[in-house]
Structures are given as C-alpha cells and as structure tokens.
C-alpha cells in the first residue's frame, strides 16, 4: 500500500509534521521532524503503511510519537491511548548518525 505524506511546517521553519493520507482521507500524523530527517521518516512510514492503515480502520486517526522512556515509536489514538508501535526493524538511521 502507498500512502501520501503532506509535509507541513510547525512552529518556525525548522520543524515539520508529516500528515498521512490514504487517498484523500487524513488518517494520522507521523513523528514531527527536522528537514534532514523527512525522507527517512517517509521511508519508515512506507515500510509500515499496511499496519498503519489497519490501525486506522480499527481505531480511527492516530499519531506516531517517540516514547523516550520506553524507547519505542508508539502509535496513539486521538485520546492518547497506545494502540500499537512501529517495530525497530522498520526504523531508519537518523541524520545525526550519518556523518
């Protein structure tokens, strides 16, 4: 499955949010990021597209956020409840580790 990703600036010009669309329907938001990591996070999203669509159909709109305490990428519903997580096998190397 291929999902569309709209990159939208958040506060200031250096942070962006990745809005996930299935066709013309907004299904969620991936982690907020800096410009250098947009393509990496799009690749992570593409690797987990089927899983994210499945979560959307079960739970509705979601957000994916880094949980530093548990060291996971948690998928949360609109109420903040954890409904899933992005497995480490789908993570890509951050830009700060590439150089």
Automatic annotation (TrEMBL):
Domain of life: Bacteria
Protein name stated in the entry: DUF1508 domain-containing protein
Organism placement in taxonomy: Bacteria, Bacillati, Actinomycetota, Actinomycetes, Micrococcales
């Amino acid at each position: 499955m291929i999902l569309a990703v709209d990159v939208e600036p958040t506060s200031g010009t250096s942070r962006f949010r990745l809005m996930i669309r299935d066709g013309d329907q907004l299904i969620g938001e991936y982690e907020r990021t800096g410009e250098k990591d947009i393509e990496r996070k799009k690749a992570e999203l593409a690797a987990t597209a089927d899983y994210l669509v499945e979560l959307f159909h079960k739970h509705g709109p979601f957000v994916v956020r880094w949980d530093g305490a548990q060291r996971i990428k948690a998928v949360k519903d609109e109420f903040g409840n954890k409904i899933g997580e992005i497995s480490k096998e789908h993570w890509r190397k951050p830009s700060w580790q590439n150089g």
